[in-house]
Amino acid sequence: MALSDTAVRQAKPAHKDYTISDSNGLALLVHRNGSKYWTFRYSHQGRKRKMSLGVYPDVSLKRAREKRDECRVRLADGLDPSETALDTEVSKKLFREVADDWDAFRTPRLTQGRKGSAAQARRYL
């Protein structure tokens, strides 16, 4: 049976975590502490997998269904939805951003005036 927004809102915590299924692999995981997470269960290359789609109410029932449908399209194309989601997040970051992050992390640890100094490291980038 398909979930309604009212049923999602009224889902209360119990003494154990439990799930409420929607359709086509979408489910709402209700934790003991009252937090609610959308999950998508699927099978890829014979292995059962599960991925998180977000936290309710940040991700509404409608948006969770849209995300589930996007994942099902990726599955139909032969792709693992959890891996393609990670790939898109990583590819959004440009090399310059990665280099700047590394520089901000590493520069305080390099000594000035030595071979291999911070200035030399910046030149390499």
From TrEMBL:
Pfam (any one): Arm-DNA-bind_3
Origin: domain of life: Bacteria
Stored InterPro entries: Integrase_DNA-bd_sf (IPR038488), Integrase_DNA_bind_dom (IPR025166), Phage_Integrase (IPR050808)
Protein name (record): DUF4102 domain-containing protein
Family note: Belongs to the 'phage' integrase family.
Keywords, sorted A to Z: DNA integration
Keyword NAD: no
One GO term (biological process): DNA integration
PANTHER family: PROPHAGE INTEGRASE (PTHR30629), PROPHAGE INTEGRASE INTS-RELATED (PTHR30629:SF2)
Domain Integrase DNA-binding, chain residue ranges per copy: 3-84
Keyword Transmembrane helix tagged: no
